[in-house]
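Rotation project, supervised by the postdoc (A.L.). Task for the rotation student: set up a whole-complex structure prediction and record inputs and outputs verbatim in this book. Inputs entered:
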Amino acid sequence: MPTAQPEIESSSEARSEDYLWTLNFGPQHPATHTTLRLVLKLEGERVVDAVPEMGYLHSGFEKIAEHLTFNQYVTVTDRMNYISPMANNVAWHHSVETLLGVNLTPRCTYIRTIVAELARISDHLLSNGAVGLDTGAFTYFLYAFYQREVIYDIFETLCGARFTNSYTRVGGVSHDFTPLVIEKIRAFVKTFPKTLNDMQRLLNRNRIFVDRTQGVGILTKEEAINRGATGPVARASGVTRDLRRDDPYLAYGDFDFQISCASAGDCYSRYLIRMQEMRESLKIVEQAIEHLPSGPVNVGNNERTTLPTKNQVYSTIEGTISHFELSMSNRGFEVPCEESYAAIEAPNGELGFYIVGDGEDQAYRARCRPPSVLNFAMFPHLIRGHTLSDVVAVLGSLNIIAAELDR
Amino acid sequence: MTKTSDTGTKTVIENAHVRALNAFCGPVESSIYRKQQRVIVPTEKSFDALSLLKDRGFDLFIDVTCVDYLEYRKAKHRYGLVYLLASTMNTERLTVRLFVDDPKPTVASVVPLWEAANWLEREVWDLFGVDFTGHPDLRRLVMPEEFTAHPLRKDYPLQGRGERHNFPVITRDHS
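Outputs recorded:
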Protein backbone atom coordinates (compact mmCIF):
# COMPACT_ATOMS: atom_id res chain seq x y z
CA MET A 1 0.00 0.00 0.00
CA PRO A 2 1.24 3.46 -0.76
CA THR A 3 0.34 4.71 2.72
CA ALA A 4 2.37 2.02 4.48
CA GLN A 5 5.71 3.54 3.63
CA PRO A 6 5.40 6.85 5.52
CA GLU A 7 4.09 5.03 8.61
CA ILE A 8 7.16 2.89 8.84
CA GLU A 9 9.35 5.91 8.38
CA SER A 10 7.66 7.88 11.12
CA SER A 11 7.83 4.97 13.53
CA SER A 12 11.54 4.54 12.94
CA GLU A 13 12.01 8.14 14.03
CA ALA A 14 10.61 7.43 17.46
CA ARG A 15 9.40 10.42 19.40
CA SER A 16 11.74 11.39 22.19
CA GLU A 17 9.26 10.35 24.88
CA ASP A 18 8.38 6.98 23.41
CA TYR A 19 10.68 5.06 25.69
CA LEU A 20 8.87 6.38 28.76
CA TRP A 21 6.72 3.92 30.56
CA THR A 22 3.26 4.95 31.79
CA LEU A 23 2.13 3.50 35.07
CA ASN A 24 -1.35 3.82 36.46
CA PHE A 25 -1.25 4.10 40.26
CA GLY A 26 -4.62 3.77 41.92
CA PRO A 27 -7.51 4.56 42.35
CA GLN A 28 -7.48 1.39 44.44
CA HIS A 29 -4.01 0.84 45.79
CA PRO A 30 -2.86 0.01 49.32
CA ALA A 31 -0.43 2.94 49.36
CA THR A 32 -2.89 5.61 48.28
CA HIS A 33 -4.80 4.70 51.48
CA THR A 34 -7.83 6.35 49.94
CA THR A 35 -9.33 6.53 46.49
CA LEU A 36 -7.16 8.69 44.28
CA ARG A 37 -5.28 8.09 41.09
CA LEU A 38 -1.87 8.98 39.73
CA VAL A 39 -0.69 8.49 36.18
CA LEU A 40 3.08 8.29 36.35
CA LYS A 41 5.52 8.62 33.49
CA LEU A 42 8.59 6.58 34.26
CA GLU A 43 12.06 6.54 32.80
CA GLY A 44 13.39 3.33 34.23
CA GLU A 45 12.67 3.83 37.90
CA ARG A 46 12.65 7.65 37.80
CA VAL A 47 9.39 9.53 37.76
CA VAL A 48 9.52 12.02 34.89
CA ASP A 49 6.03 13.36 35.40
CA ALA A 50 2.91 12.61 37.39
CA VAL A 51 -0.67 13.51 36.60
CA PRO A 52 -2.84 13.32 39.71
CA GLU A 53 -6.52 12.72 39.25
CA MET A 54 -9.27 13.04 41.80
CA GLY A 55 -13.03 12.94 42.01
CA TYR A 56 -13.60 9.24 42.68
CA LEU A 57 -15.25 10.02 46.01
CA HIS A 58 -17.08 13.17 44.98
CA SER A 59 -20.46 13.09 46.68
CA GLY A 60 -21.59 16.69 46.41
CA PHE A 61 -21.13 17.67 50.05
CA GLU A 62 -21.38 21.35 49.19
CA LYS A 63 -24.65 20.79 47.36
CA ILE A 64 -26.01 18.83 50.32
CA ALA A 65 -25.05 21.74 52.60
CA GLU A 66 -27.61 23.88 50.80
CA HIS A 67 -30.36 21.47 51.81
CA LEU A 68 -29.53 20.64 55.42
CA THR A 69 -29.81 22.88 58.45
CA PHE A 70 -26.72 24.05 60.28
CA ASN A 71 -27.07 21.38 62.93
CA GLN A 72 -27.82 18.57 60.49
CA TYR A 73 -24.85 19.27 58.27
CA VAL A 74 -22.39 18.46 61.02
CA THR A 75 -22.95 14.77 60.25
CA VAL A 76 -21.67 15.36 56.72
CA THR A 77 -18.56 17.16 57.94
CA ASP A 78 -17.66 14.00 59.86
CA ARG A 79 -17.27 12.28 56.54
CA MET A 80 -14.91 14.83 55.04
CA ASN A 81 -11.63 14.26 56.82
CA TYR A 82 -12.65 11.05 58.51
CA ILE A 83 -9.39 10.57 60.38
CA SER A 84 -10.02 13.70 62.44
CA PRO A 85 -13.79 14.22 62.34
CA MET A 86 -13.85 16.21 65.57
CA ALA A 87 -11.73 18.93 63.98
CA ASN A 88 -14.19 19.15 61.09
CA ASN A 89 -17.13 19.47 63.47
CA VAL A 90 -15.37 22.28 65.28
CA ALA A 91 -14.46 23.99 62.00
CA TRP A 92 -18.00 23.84 60.66
CA HIS A 93 -19.71 25.23 63.71
CA HIS A 94 -16.97 27.78 64.22
CA SER A 95 -17.85 29.13 60.78
CA VAL A 96 -21.58 28.96 61.41
CA GLU A 97 -21.24 30.79 64.71
CA THR A 98 -19.10 33.43 63.06
CA LEU A 99 -21.89 34.02 60.56
CA LEU A 100 -24.63 34.02 63.20
CA GLY A 101 -22.60 35.99 65.73
CA VAL A 102 -22.94 33.48 68.56
CA ASN A 103 -20.54 33.85 71.47
CA LEU A 104 -19.72 30.56 73.15
CA THR A 105 -19.48 29.95 76.87
CA PRO A 106 -15.94 29.63 78.28
CA ARG A 107 -16.48 25.97 79.13
CA CYS A 108 -17.56 25.22 75.59
CA THR A 109 -14.50 26.88 74.05
CA TYR A 110 -12.26 24.81 76.33
CA ILE A 111 -14.08 21.59 75.52
CA ARG A 112 -13.88 22.26 71.80
CA THR A 113 -10.20 23.09 72.09
CA ILE A 114 -9.55 19.80 73.86
CA VAL A 115 -11.42 17.67 71.33
CA ALA A 116 -9.83 19.51 68.41
CA GLU A 117 -6.37 18.88 69.82
CA LEU A 118 -7.16 15.22 70.49
CA ALA A 119 -8.28 15.03 66.87
CA ARG A 120 -4.97 16.53 65.81
CA ILE A 121 -3.07 13.90 67.78
CA SER A 122 -5.10 11.09 66.27
CA ASP A 123 -4.64 12.52 62.76
CA HIS A 124 -0.90 12.87 63.11
CA LEU A 125 -0.67 9.37 64.58
CA LEU A 126 -2.33 7.95 61.53
CA SER A 127 -0.51 10.04 58.94
CA ASN A 128 2.90 9.39 60.47
CA GLY A 129 1.96 5.77 61.01
CA ALA A 130 1.01 5.48 57.34
CA VAL A 131 4.33 6.97 56.25
CA GLY A 132 6.02 4.39 58.45
CA LEU A 133 3.85 1.63 57.04
CA ASP A 134 4.59 2.60 53.44
CA THR A 135 8.31 2.80 54.05
CA GLY A 136 8.44 -0.56 55.80
CA ALA A 137 8.07 0.26 59.49
CA PHE A 138 5.04 -1.79 60.40
CA THR A 139 5.73 -1.87 64.13
CA TYR A 140 5.63 1.89 64.25
CA PHE A 141 2.21 1.89 62.61
CA LEU A 142 0.86 -0.47 65.26
CA TYR A 143 2.21 1.71 68.06
CA ALA A 144 0.45 4.67 66.50
CA PHE A 145 -2.79 2.85 65.90
CA TYR A 146 -2.96 1.58 69.44
CA GLN A 147 -2.92 5.14 70.72
CA ARG A 148 -5.59 6.15 68.20
CA GLU A 149 -7.70 3.45 69.76
CA VAL A 150 -7.34 5.15 73.14
CA ILE A 151 -8.56 8.44 71.63
CA TYR A 152 -11.47 6.64 69.98
CA ASP A 153 -12.34 5.30 73.38
CA ILE A 154 -12.33 8.81 74.87
CA PHE A 155 -14.65 10.04 72.10
CA GLU A 156 -16.92 7.06 72.57
CA THR A 157 -17.26 7.82 76.27
CA LEU A 158 -17.84 11.46 75.42
CA CYS A 159 -20.51 11.26 72.73
CA GLY A 160 -21.24 7.62 72.01
CA ALA A 161 -19.61 7.53 68.59
CA ARG A 162 -16.08 6.42 67.91
CA PHE A 163 -15.63 7.49 64.35
CA THR A 164 -18.28 9.88 63.12
CA ASN A 165 -18.71 11.96 66.22
CA SER A 166 -21.06 14.78 65.10
CA TYR A 167 -20.16 16.31 68.42
CA THR A 168 -20.69 20.05 68.08
CA ARG A 169 -23.94 21.98 67.86
CA VAL A 170 -24.62 25.60 67.07
CA GLY A 171 -23.81 27.39 70.30
CA GLY A 172 -22.50 24.35 72.11
CA VAL A 173 -21.77 20.67 72.05
CA SER A 174 -23.99 17.60 72.23
CA HIS A 175 -22.58 16.22 75.49
CA ASP A 176 -20.82 17.91 78.36
CA PHE A 177 -17.62 16.43 79.78
CA THR A 178 -18.39 13.88 82.48
CA PRO A 179 -15.92 13.01 85.27
CA LEU A 180 -15.22 9.74 83.47
CA VAL A 181 -14.21 11.54 80.28
CA ILE A 182 -11.94 13.89 82.19
CA GLU A 183 -10.38 10.93 83.96
CA LYS A 184 -9.75 9.17 80.65
CA ILE A 185 -8.21 12.26 79.08
CA ARG A 186 -5.96 12.69 82.12
CA ALA A 187 -4.87 9.08 81.83
CA PHE A 188 -4.13 9.59 78.14
CA VAL A 189 -2.10 12.74 78.85
CA LYS A 190 -0.08 10.77 81.37
CA THR A 191 0.58 7.64 79.31
CA PHE A 192 0.90 9.05 75.81
CA PRO A 193 4.35 10.73 76.15
CA LYS A 194 5.89 7.36 76.91
CA THR A 195 4.52 5.86 73.70
CA LEU A 196 5.56 8.97 71.82
CA ASN A 197 9.11 8.51 73.08
CA ASP A 198 9.03 4.89 72.01
CA MET A 199 7.79 5.89 68.59
CA GLN A 200 10.51 8.48 68.29
CA ARG A 201 13.15 5.94 69.20
CA LEU A 202 11.75 3.52 66.65
CA LEU A 203 11.90 5.81 63.66
CA ASN A 204 13.72 9.11 64.16
CA ARG A 205 17.16 7.61 63.66
CA ASN A 206 16.10 4.49 61.82
CA ARG A 207 18.52 4.18 58.93
CA ILE A 208 16.04 2.80 56.42
CA PHE A 209 13.38 5.36 57.23
CA VAL A 210 15.74 8.34 57.21
CA ASP A 211 17.29 7.26 53.92
CA ARG A 212 13.88 6.95 52.33
CA THR A 213 12.51 10.27 53.51
CA GLN A 214 15.39 12.71 53.94
CA GLY A 215 15.87 14.91 50.88
CA VAL A 216 12.80 13.41 49.21
CA GLY A 217 9.96 15.61 47.99
CA ILE A 218 11.53 18.94 48.86
CA LEU A 219 9.20 21.92 48.99
CA THR A 220 10.93 25.28 49.29
CA LYS A 221 9.43 28.11 51.29
CA GLU A 222 8.66 30.17 48.17
CA GLU A 223 6.96 27.23 46.49
CA ALA A 224 5.02 26.41 49.65
CA ILE A 225 3.57 29.93 49.73
CA ASN A 226 2.99 30.04 45.98
CA ARG A 227 1.18 26.71 46.03
CA GLY A 228 -0.97 27.62 48.99
CA ALA A 229 0.38 25.08 51.46
CA THR A 230 -0.88 25.35 55.03
CA GLY A 231 -0.52 23.28 58.17
CA PRO A 232 2.35 20.83 58.78
CA VAL A 233 3.31 20.80 55.09
CA ALA A 234 3.91 24.56 55.11
CA ARG A 235 5.54 24.61 58.53
CA ALA A 236 7.99 21.89 57.46
CA SER A 237 9.07 24.29 54.70
CA GLY A 238 9.64 27.21 57.02
CA VAL A 239 6.34 29.07 56.73
CA THR A 240 5.69 30.11 60.32
CA ARG A 241 1.96 30.33 60.01
CA ASP A 242 -0.41 28.73 62.48
CA LEU A 243 -3.91 30.05 63.01
CA ARG A 244 -3.86 28.92 66.62
CA ARG A 245 -1.27 31.59 67.30
CA ASP A 246 -1.94 34.11 64.51
CA ASP A 247 -5.69 34.31 64.91
CA PRO A 248 -6.48 32.70 68.28
CA TYR A 249 -9.96 31.26 67.98
CA LEU A 250 -11.70 29.24 70.73
CA ALA A 251 -9.47 29.24 73.84
CA TYR A 252 -6.05 29.04 72.20
CA GLY A 253 -5.10 32.48 73.49
CA ASP A 254 -5.03 31.12 77.04
CA PHE A 255 -2.46 28.39 76.57
CA ASP A 256 1.28 28.18 76.41
CA PHE A 257 2.47 26.20 73.40
CA GLN A 258 5.03 26.36 70.63
CA ILE A 259 4.62 26.36 66.87
CA SER A 260 6.82 23.68 65.39
CA CYS A 261 8.76 24.65 62.28
CA ALA A 262 11.45 23.17 60.10
CA SER A 263 13.33 24.52 57.12
CA ALA A 264 14.28 21.47 55.04
CA GLY A 265 10.82 20.93 53.55
CA ASP A 266 11.34 17.25 52.81
CA CYS A 267 9.30 14.21 53.85
CA TYR A 268 11.47 13.70 56.91
CA SER A 269 10.84 17.20 58.26
CA ARG A 270 7.12 16.83 57.66
CA TYR A 271 7.32 13.69 59.75
CA LEU A 272 9.28 15.48 62.48
CA ILE A 273 6.84 18.42 62.50
CA ARG A 274 3.93 16.06 63.09
CA MET A 275 5.78 14.30 65.90
CA GLN A 276 6.54 17.63 67.55
CA GLU A 277 2.99 18.92 67.06
CA MET A 278 1.64 15.93 68.96
CA ARG A 279 3.72 16.95 71.95
CA GLU A 280 2.51 20.53 71.71
CA SER A 281 -1.10 19.40 71.35
CA LEU A 282 -0.67 17.29 74.44
CA LYS A 283 0.55 20.37 76.30
CA ILE A 284 -2.59 22.24 75.25
CA VAL A 285 -4.86 19.37 76.29
CA GLU A 286 -3.13 19.12 79.64
CA GLN A 287 -3.47 22.84 80.37
CA ALA A 288 -7.07 22.94 79.19
CA ILE A 289 -8.24 19.92 81.15
CA GLU A 290 -6.68 21.25 84.36
CA HIS A 291 -8.21 24.71 83.93
CA LEU A 292 -11.57 23.62 82.55
CA PRO A 293 -14.03 26.37 83.54
CA SER A 294 -17.23 25.42 85.29
CA GLY A 295 -20.60 26.75 84.30
CA PRO A 296 -22.96 26.04 81.45
CA VAL A 297 -21.58 24.42 78.34
CA ASN A 298 -24.19 25.61 75.87
CA VAL A 299 -25.42 29.09 75.11
CA GLY A 300 -28.60 29.80 77.08
CA ASN A 301 -32.00 28.84 75.78
CA ASN A 302 -33.18 32.42 75.96
CA GLU A 303 -30.90 33.34 73.12
CA ARG A 304 -32.50 30.46 71.26
CA THR A 305 -29.35 29.46 69.50
CA THR A 306 -28.77 26.00 70.88
CA LEU A 307 -30.90 22.94 71.43
CA PRO A 308 -31.82 22.45 75.11
CA THR A 309 -30.72 19.31 76.90
CA LYS A 310 -33.10 16.37 77.02
CA ASN A 311 -33.56 16.96 80.73
CA GLN A 312 -34.77 20.49 80.06
CA VAL A 313 -37.00 19.34 77.21
CA TYR A 314 -38.80 16.76 79.32
CA SER A 315 -39.09 18.75 82.55
CA THR A 316 -39.62 22.42 81.65
CA ILE A 317 -42.11 24.11 79.38
CA GLU A 318 -39.47 26.56 78.12
CA GLY A 319 -37.23 23.68 77.16
CA THR A 320 -40.05 21.95 75.30
CA ILE A 321 -41.00 25.07 73.39
CA SER A 322 -37.44 25.96 72.60
CA HIS A 323 -36.67 22.46 71.34
CA PHE A 324 -39.85 22.36 69.28
CA GLU A 325 -39.23 25.71 67.66
CA LEU A 326 -35.58 25.07 66.91
CA SER A 327 -36.47 21.76 65.27
CA MET A 328 -39.10 23.38 63.06
CA SER A 329 -38.08 24.99 59.85
CA ASN A 330 -38.27 28.79 59.68
CA ARG A 331 -38.45 29.12 63.44
CA GLY A 332 -34.87 28.47 64.39
CA PHE A 333 -31.83 30.67 64.16
CA GLU A 334 -31.79 34.24 63.01
CA VAL A 335 -29.54 34.03 60.00
CA PRO A 336 -28.31 37.30 58.51
CA CYS A 337 -28.26 37.86 54.74
CA GLU A 338 -24.50 38.01 54.83
CA GLU A 339 -21.41 36.03 53.94
CA SER A 340 -18.44 35.21 56.09
CA TYR A 341 -15.42 32.98 56.18
CA ALA A 342 -13.91 31.44 59.28
CA ALA A 343 -11.19 28.86 59.49
CA ILE A 344 -9.44 26.77 62.08
CA GLU A 345 -6.02 25.18 62.09
CA ALA A 346 -7.12 21.64 61.31
CA PRO A 347 -4.55 18.82 61.53
CA ASN A 348 -4.00 19.03 57.78
CA GLY A 349 -3.90 22.79 57.42
CA GLU A 350 -6.33 25.63 57.21
CA LEU A 351 -9.84 24.20 57.13
CA GLY A 352 -12.45 26.88 56.68
CA PHE A 353 -15.99 27.34 55.50
CA TYR A 354 -17.27 30.25 53.46
CA ILE A 355 -20.94 30.43 54.33
CA VAL A 356 -23.58 32.56 52.64
CA GLY A 357 -26.73 33.08 54.68
CA ASP A 358 -30.03 34.23 53.23
CA GLY A 359 -32.23 34.24 56.31
CA GLU A 360 -33.10 30.56 56.00
CA ASP A 361 -32.07 27.75 58.32
CA GLN A 362 -29.88 26.24 55.64
CA ALA A 363 -26.81 27.83 54.24
CA TYR A 364 -27.40 29.42 50.85
CA ARG A 365 -23.92 28.25 49.98
CA ALA A 366 -21.32 26.57 52.15
CA ARG A 367 -17.93 26.29 50.59
CA CYS A 368 -15.39 24.08 52.31
CA ARG A 369 -11.78 25.14 51.91
CA PRO A 370 -10.04 21.77 51.96
CA PRO A 371 -6.30 21.69 52.68
CA SER A 372 -5.96 18.32 50.93
CA VAL A 373 -6.74 19.74 47.48
CA LEU A 374 -3.85 22.18 47.59
CA ASN A 375 -1.54 19.54 49.03
CA PHE A 376 -2.44 17.08 46.31
CA ALA A 377 -2.10 19.69 43.57
CA MET A 378 1.57 20.15 44.43
CA PHE A 379 2.31 16.42 44.21
CA PRO A 380 3.76 16.41 40.65
CA HIS A 381 6.09 19.22 41.65
CA LEU A 382 7.36 17.21 44.61
CA ILE A 383 7.82 13.86 42.90
CA ARG A 384 9.55 14.85 39.66
CA GLY A 385 13.01 13.30 39.47
CA HIS A 386 12.49 10.88 42.33
CA THR A 387 12.08 7.14 42.08
CA LEU A 388 8.87 5.16 42.00
CA SER A 389 9.37 3.96 45.57
CA ASP A 390 9.43 7.60 46.74
CA VAL A 391 5.88 8.09 45.49
CA VAL A 392 4.42 6.42 48.57
CA ALA A 393 6.70 8.35 50.93
CA VAL A 394 5.71 11.72 49.43
CA LEU A 395 2.05 10.80 49.21
CA GLY A 396 2.03 9.66 52.82
CA SER A 397 3.82 12.75 54.08
CA LEU A 398 1.26 15.04 52.44
CA ASN A 399 -1.50 13.16 54.26
CA ILE A 400 -4.12 13.35 51.54
CA ILE A 401 -7.57 12.25 52.58
CA ALA A 402 -9.65 11.58 49.48
CA ALA A 403 -13.00 12.16 51.17
CA GLU A 404 -11.92 15.69 52.01
CA LEU A 405 -10.21 16.06 48.64
CA ASP A 406 -13.34 15.28 46.64
CA ARG A 407 -16.10 16.19 49.08
CA MET B 1 -14.25 55.61 60.32
CA THR B 2 -17.99 55.20 60.72
CA LYS B 3 -19.60 53.65 63.73
CA THR B 4 -20.43 49.97 64.02
CA SER B 5 -24.10 49.18 64.03
CA ASP B 6 -25.51 46.86 66.68
CA THR B 7 -26.30 44.09 64.26
CA GLY B 8 -22.67 43.92 63.25
CA THR B 9 -23.43 44.51 59.59
CA LYS B 10 -21.84 46.82 57.12
CA THR B 11 -19.54 49.57 58.18
CA VAL B 12 -16.98 51.38 56.11
CA ILE B 13 -13.54 51.60 57.53
CA GLU B 14 -10.41 53.22 56.22
CA ASN B 15 -7.97 50.60 55.15
CA ALA B 16 -4.66 51.12 53.36
CA HIS B 17 -5.35 48.31 50.92
CA VAL B 18 -8.79 49.67 50.12
CA ARG B 19 -7.30 53.10 49.53
CA ALA B 20 -4.73 51.60 47.18
CA LEU B 21 -7.49 49.80 45.30
CA ASN B 22 -9.50 53.02 45.12
CA ALA B 23 -6.57 54.80 43.57
CA PHE B 24 -6.03 51.95 41.15
CA CYS B 25 -9.47 51.06 39.82
CA GLY B 26 -11.81 53.80 40.92
CA PRO B 27 -13.95 53.74 44.05
CA VAL B 28 -14.44 50.12 45.15
CA GLU B 29 -17.25 49.02 47.44
CA SER B 30 -15.79 47.92 50.75
CA SER B 31 -17.43 46.64 53.90
CA ILE B 32 -16.63 44.88 57.13
CA TYR B 33 -18.64 42.04 58.57
CA ARG B 34 -17.53 40.18 61.71
CA LYS B 35 -14.18 41.97 61.51
CA GLN B 36 -13.60 40.70 57.98
CA GLN B 37 -12.58 43.29 55.42
CA ARG B 38 -14.23 42.78 52.05
CA VAL B 39 -13.97 44.63 48.79
CA ILE B 40 -15.82 44.33 45.50
CA VAL B 41 -13.63 45.00 42.48
CA PRO B 42 -14.73 45.51 38.86
CA THR B 43 -14.58 42.25 36.92
CA GLU B 44 -12.54 43.56 34.01
CA LYS B 45 -9.81 44.80 36.35
CA SER B 46 -9.78 41.75 38.63
CA PHE B 47 -6.40 40.42 37.55
CA ASP B 48 -4.64 43.74 37.98
CA ALA B 49 -6.36 44.39 41.30
CA LEU B 50 -5.36 40.98 42.67
CA SER B 51 -1.86 41.47 41.32
CA LEU B 52 -1.71 44.78 43.18
CA LEU B 53 -2.87 43.09 46.37
CA LYS B 54 -0.27 40.38 45.98
CA ASP B 55 2.42 43.04 45.76
CA ARG B 56 0.97 44.67 48.86
CA GLY B 57 1.70 41.57 50.95
CA PHE B 58 -1.15 39.14 50.38
CA ASP B 59 1.15 36.37 49.28
CA LEU B 60 -0.95 33.40 50.38
CA PHE B 61 -3.88 32.43 48.19
CA ILE B 62 -6.39 30.76 50.48
CA ASP B 63 -9.31 30.01 48.22
CA VAL B 64 -11.36 31.01 45.24
CA THR B 65 -14.96 29.99 45.15
CA CYS B 66 -18.21 30.99 43.56
CA VAL B 67 -21.74 31.68 44.72
CA ASP B 68 -24.71 31.33 42.40
CA TYR B 69 -27.08 34.16 43.34
CA LEU B 70 -29.96 32.88 41.17
CA GLU B 71 -32.41 32.60 44.10
CA TYR B 72 -30.82 35.20 46.33
CA ARG B 73 -32.99 38.12 47.33
CA LYS B 74 -32.09 41.46 45.76
CA ALA B 75 -29.20 39.97 43.84
CA LYS B 76 -28.23 41.96 40.76
CA HIS B 77 -25.82 39.47 39.28
CA ARG B 78 -25.88 35.74 38.71
CA TYR B 79 -22.46 34.62 39.95
CA GLY B 80 -20.25 36.09 42.60
CA LEU B 81 -16.63 35.01 42.73
CA VAL B 82 -14.89 35.14 46.08
CA TYR B 83 -11.12 35.33 46.47
CA LEU B 84 -9.79 34.80 49.96
CA LEU B 85 -6.32 36.22 50.46
CA ALA B 86 -4.03 36.05 53.45
CA SER B 87 -0.51 36.97 54.32
CA THR B 88 2.27 34.84 55.74
CA MET B 89 4.04 37.91 57.13
CA ASN B 90 1.20 39.17 59.31
CA THR B 91 -2.32 38.15 60.21
CA GLU B 92 -4.11 40.28 57.63
CA ARG B 93 -6.85 38.80 55.53
CA LEU B 94 -8.87 40.20 52.68
CA THR B 95 -11.91 38.95 50.83
CA VAL B 96 -12.14 40.13 47.25
CA ARG B 97 -15.42 39.70 45.45
CA LEU B 98 -16.50 40.30 41.90
CA PHE B 99 -19.53 39.48 39.81
CA VAL B 100 -20.02 37.80 36.46
CA ASP B 101 -23.17 37.04 34.50
CA ASP B 102 -24.67 34.65 32.01
CA PRO B 103 -24.53 33.74 29.14
CA LYS B 104 -20.75 33.44 29.23
CA PRO B 105 -19.42 34.04 32.75
CA THR B 106 -15.75 34.76 32.24
CA VAL B 107 -13.01 36.08 34.46
CA ALA B 108 -9.24 36.32 34.18
CA SER B 109 -7.32 33.44 35.71
CA VAL B 110 -4.92 34.25 38.54
CA VAL B 111 -2.73 31.16 38.04
CA PRO B 112 0.13 33.41 36.79
CA LEU B 113 0.07 35.07 40.23
CA TRP B 114 -0.49 32.06 42.48
CA GLU B 115 0.00 28.45 41.46
CA ALA B 116 -2.44 27.55 44.24
CA ALA B 117 -5.29 28.88 42.10
CA ASN B 118 -4.78 26.18 39.50
CA TRP B 119 -6.94 23.40 40.91
CA LEU B 120 -9.27 25.74 42.77
CA GLU B 121 -10.20 27.50 39.51
CA ARG B 122 -10.65 24.14 37.84
CA GLU B 123 -13.11 23.24 40.58
CA VAL B 124 -15.08 26.47 40.09
CA TRP B 125 -15.19 25.81 36.33
CA ASP B 126 -16.31 22.26 36.98
CA LEU B 127 -19.09 23.02 39.44
CA PHE B 128 -20.25 26.46 38.28
CA GLY B 129 -19.15 26.76 34.67
CA VAL B 130 -17.28 30.02 35.16
CA ASP B 131 -14.63 30.28 32.49
CA PHE B 132 -11.13 31.41 33.50
CA THR B 133 -9.27 32.97 30.58
CA GLY B 134 -5.56 32.29 30.63
CA HIS B 135 -5.83 29.16 32.73
CA PRO B 136 -3.19 26.66 31.60
CA ASP B 137 -5.26 23.51 32.03
CA LEU B 138 -8.97 24.15 32.47
CA ARG B 139 -10.41 20.65 32.83
CA ARG B 140 -13.05 19.25 35.13
CA LEU B 141 -11.66 18.45 38.56
CA VAL B 142 -14.18 16.39 40.51
CA MET B 143 -16.89 15.48 37.99
CA PRO B 144 -16.20 13.00 35.19
CA GLU B 145 -15.12 14.34 31.81
CA GLU B 146 -18.34 13.21 30.08
CA PHE B 147 -20.43 15.32 32.44
CA THR B 148 -22.14 18.23 30.75
CA ALA B 149 -23.85 20.18 33.55
CA HIS B 150 -22.39 22.33 36.32
CA PRO B 151 -23.96 20.81 39.43
CA LEU B 152 -23.49 23.54 42.05
CA ARG B 153 -25.59 25.97 40.05
CA LYS B 154 -28.89 26.66 41.74
CA ASP B 155 -30.93 25.48 38.75
CA TYR B 156 -29.36 22.03 38.96
CA PRO B 157 -31.52 19.69 41.07
CA LEU B 158 -30.16 18.04 44.21
CA GLN B 159 -30.94 14.55 42.92
CA GLY B 160 -29.24 15.21 39.60
CA ARG B 161 -30.67 14.68 36.16
CA GLY B 162 -30.09 10.96 35.89
CA GLU B 163 -26.57 11.22 34.47
CA ARG B 164 -25.45 8.56 36.82
CA HIS B 165 -27.60 5.94 35.10
CA ASN B 166 -26.10 6.76 31.72
CA PHE B 167 -22.45 6.55 32.66
CA PRO B 168 -20.55 4.23 30.33
CA VAL B 169 -19.98 0.85 31.91
CA ILE B 170 -16.46 -0.43 31.40
CA THR B 171 -16.33 -4.18 31.11
CA ARG B 172 -13.28 -6.32 31.56
CA ASP B 173 -12.94 -6.76 27.80
CA HIS B 174 -12.93 -3.04 27.08
CA SER B 175 -10.74 -1.84 29.90
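Student's summary: The longest helix of chain B spans residues 117-128.
Supervisor addendum: The two ends of chain B are 65 Å apart (CA to CA).
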